[in-house]
Design a protein that fits this description.
The protein is α/β, with parallel strands linked by helices and 180 residues long. It has helices spanning 46-56, 70-81, 113-122, 127-142, 150-166, and strands at residues 30-37, 61-68, 89-93, 105-112. A 4-stranded mixed β-sheet has the order 1-2-4-3, with helices on both faces. Strand 1 (30-37), helix 1 and strand 2 (61-68) form a beta-alpha-beta unit. Helix 1 crosses helix 4. It is globular, with a radius of gyration of 15 Å. The relative contact order is 0.19.
Length: 180
């Protein structure tokens, strides 16, 4: 089975989710920073990123989204996953340093913009739909979801499809006919 995004956990213990996201996500506080370190275009706006992340969140979070080019994506993938190529999204989860906010997520999502763009083109998907999928995928990882075995993968894919459908984005796992 092929997955859109390989997962890795840089510095935290995986926590298994206790309940899946609700059909209508609650509005949790999101402290978002977007770093644009890519020359690729177009890139999603901060407003779009915030909307997609909040849609997938089941609790408050502090998240940095960094949009990078191939050299940085490759360097990070090599350093943390020992794979010598840039990947579409990397998820870093950190413990919250504020003991009063123990239920708050804290993490980084790093997307390699040229890889995302190439994948969207190759898979005949609208670029922003692919960004939404990868950001939701990464946000689920921050909340403890994984795809290390068939059962976990099926649950995570189902959640992604449901969340994307609520945003009027088609199932990213279905093959799409070529344009033209």
């Amino acid at each position: 089975m092929w997955f859109a995004t390989p997962w890795f956990n840089a510095s935290s213990t995986l926590m298994k989710p206790s309940t899946p996201p609700m059909a209508e996500p609650h509005r949790f506080h999101l402290d978002l920073t977007v770093q644009r370190a890519s020359r690729s275009s177009p890139l999603p706006s901060e407003r779009q990123i915030r909307r997609w992340l909040r849609h997938a969140l089941r609790r408050s979070a502090v998240i940095t989204v960094r949009l990078v080019d191939r050299p940085e994506g490759r360097s990070l993938n090599q350093a943390f996953r020992h794979k010598d190529y840039p990947t579409n999204v990397l998820t870093f989860s950190y413990p919250d340093e504020n003991p009063r906010a123990s239920a708050r997520l804290h993490g980084d999502l790093v997307l390699c913009a040229p890889v995302v763009k190439a994948e969207a083109r190759q898979q005949h998907k609208p670029l922003l739909d692919h960004y939404a999928h990868l950001l939701i995928h990464g946000t689920l990882h921050l909340q403890g979801y994984d795809h290390e075995n068939e059962r976990e993968a099926a649950l995570m894919e189902t959640l992604e499809i449901d969340l994307l459908t609520q945003l009027s984005i088609p199932n990213p796992y279905l093959d799409r006919p070529a344009h033209g």
